[in-house]
Design brief:
globular; six-stranded mixed β-sheet; five-stranded mixed β-sheet; alpha+beta
Length: 519
């Protein structure tokens, strides 16, 4: 369950003698009185939360765009674009864009042409066809030309100027992230520097320049090597989504396919920006020391003249759960592990709330059923966990069980124990005491991160973007609190079936090598 970040500790202490329901009712009222939601004329949604504890603000700007919005030939575009938007604008990141512009335009033209030639060469090589000498000659010529143009452009580029400007104004946490569902840009600033943010970020949307595109694309290629291809666990998760979701939007890796990233076209990336980075597809959330009217007027001044943009089309692919178990194996020189996952509804479906409880029953912490069986009792695993809503919440998603087995452990025994625990719940249900323990843990999570402007801004913006109402986060808790034993039995029987499961095994390839050498 996504963690919910709320109000101040002092407020909670005053409510400590009340029931959980009363606490959340009071929390809701307190937050609603300190929060205002606006929608500008161009469709931009603005959420303001007034918290006067310190003279700072946290600002999270979210766009409803992630890897689910890509087609295979553009895999990785959302993530690459996140990188590119830190490269500056026509006003930031350049000594003189009027002089730099001609080099940027030439780089885009010849860089795209070079990509086409390199792609042609790759396709010929894949069919064992000799590379024509004139093709290789053109590639060599354009590679040199592109390097010369980049060197000329570099004379005008001021690297990381946006970071420098923010640093001079007291920033903390200037960063961004891309997921399957959303792309987020975040920063914390002194509240009297909010106008600096408004100037910088509105300019980023109005006048982006995708400078250093080809060198940054190489950075992303290396990032994929480091974070995915050099990690057995990452490869296992990526393969799981590809196998479990044959037509599902979540099968697209956020980082992109290794065969596609080197050929991501700059013209397609600019088009992707135009389609998805516009006011009708974004939410700005500002939390901290602010005045409502003054802050709203500031955002209107800098952002309301940005065109609304096209309406987001509905994504057509929709996974139909096929009857029949799916299995796959990934070999990698690392410790071994197993993933088991089942497709299920996303929020606000009532069954999603039951899975918020079920993940705690089965695999959250040392007191969970699978941890006791697999780690403490049998010593088959060194770690085990269960998680709901993998890898996102815009579409049907997965209930996932992950087990990291100890060396020499019998995987069939691990799997058998997991099925035993699922079937116990399906047949016998769960005691109210065990359910309440998980609910109490969720409540503790709810309050543990409450006193954080940045976490609140992240969470409010997330729910507003995905559901159209930031207050959905309260309904998530309310629905979870209604879950009982019969609900857990029902979802276990309905979704966690043997003919609906996808099972992935990460095998240590070094063991195979040792076996070969011993023969």
């Amino acid at each position: 369950m996504r963690k919910l970040y709320l109000i101040t500790f002092s407020f909670l202490i005053s409510l400590s003698n009340l029931s959980a329901e009363s606490i959340f009712e009071n929390v809701t009222k307190q937050l609603e009185s300190n929060t205002k939601r606006y929608q500008l004329q161009n469709g931009l949604r603005l959420i303001l939360v007034q918290r006067k504890e310190s003279p700072t603000v946290a600002i999270y700007t979210k766009f409803l765009v992630g890897s689910v919005d890509e087609i295979p030939s553009q895999s990785g575009t959302a993530h690459l674009l996140e990188h590119m938007l830190f490269k500056g604008t026509a006003n930031v990141g350049t000594q003189d864009y009027s002089k730099e512009k001609k080099y940027q335009e030439q780089i885009e033209i010849w860089g795209s042409k070079l990509d086409q030639l390199r792609l042609e060469k790759r396709n010929l090589e894949s069919r064992s066809i000799a590379i024509p000498s004139d093709l290789q000659s053109q590639i060599d010529t354009l590679t040199k030309r592109l390097k010369v143009l980049q060197d000329y452009q570099n004379e005008f580029i001021i690297k990381n100027e946006d970071s420098y400007i923010y640093e001079q104004n007291g920033e903390v946490g200037f960063n961004a992230y891309t997921t399957s569902d959303v792309t987020n840009y975040q920063i914390q600033l002194p509240s009297n520097r909010l106008v600096i943010w408004a100037m910088m970020e509105s300019d980023r949307l109005k006048n982006p320049v995708l400078r250093e595109y080809y060198t940054e694309r190489d950075v992303v290629i290396e990032e994929r090597r480091m974070r995915t291809e050099n990690s057995g666990a990452s490869l296992l998760r990526e393969r799981f989504l590809a196998v479990a979701g044959e037509a599902h939007p979540y099968r697209m890796p956020v980082i992109g396919y290794p065969s596609v990233i080197p050929f991501l076209d700059i013209a397609d990336t600019k088009k992707f920006f135009t389609e998805h980075y516009h006011p009708g597809n974004m939410v700005i959330t500002i939390v901290g020391d602010l005045e409502f009217d003054e802050t709203k007027q500031l955002v209107q001044e800098f952002f309301e003249n940005i065109p609304q943009g096209p309406k987001k089309p509905e994504i057509k692919p929709y996974e139909i759960q096929s009857a029949g178990e799916k299995r796959f194996t990934v070999e990698f020189p690392s410790g071994e592990s197993m993933l088991m996952g089942w497709m299920k509804p996303t929020l606000p479906h009532v069954d999603n709330s039951a899975f918020d409880i079920l993940d705690g029953i089965l695999g959250r912490g040392p007191s969970s059923r699978l941890y006791k069986r697999l780690v403490l009792d049998t010593n088959l695993c060194s770690a085990v966990s269960a998680s709901n809503s993998f890898p996102g919440e815009r579409f049907t998603n997965f209930f996932l069980i992950s087990a990291r087995n100890n060396k020499g452990a019998d995987l069939s025994k691990i799997e058998a124990i997991i099925w035993e625990e699922i079937e116990k719940i399906a047949q016998d249900g769960v005691s109210e005491e065990e359910i309440q323990k998980v609910k109490n843990g969720n409540i503790a999570d709810f309050f543990r991160y409450m006193d954080s402007n940045e976490a609140m801004a992240d969470t409010f913006g997330y729910y507003e973007l995905l559901t159209g109402d930031w207050k959905t986060l309260f309904r998530v808790y309310e629905n979870m609190n209604k879950v009982g034993s019969k609900d857990l039995q029902r979802v276990a029987r309905q979704y966690l079936k043997r003919n609906r499961v996808t099972i992935g095994i990460l095998k240590d390839s070094r063991l195979n090598t040792k076996g070969t050498n011993n023969e």
